[in-house]
Please model this.
Amino acid sequence: MKIFGILSLLIVLCAGFFMYQRSVTSLPAGESLTAQIDTTAIRQRLLTIAQTERNYLGSNGRYATLEQLINENLLPGGTEQRGYTFTAVVNGSTGFTITATPTDEDKQDWPTLEITESMKVTER
Model:
């Protein structure tokens, strides 16, 4: 009975390893697993900053610059993360565009990401 349990565990582990290898090799052309993880983290950071902007608008009647958010301790971590730098263009109470630009030398061919008050992240 123990042999059957061990054999079942071995089969499950092999199937899991096969699925993992297959997912890593099926990444988009030229995209590494690190690039995929980092850009996902940057997308999440953009969504967090945009939600902070929305909250700021609700409290103050206008959107804030990144510097204002930092000064009010609403933007922990600052304007750099994972080799990207965040910048913002704020239009008072009508809108904002936050851009994440790769600044690390190793990431120059990675995408620039943007988010607006629509809460949709886009790539350029």
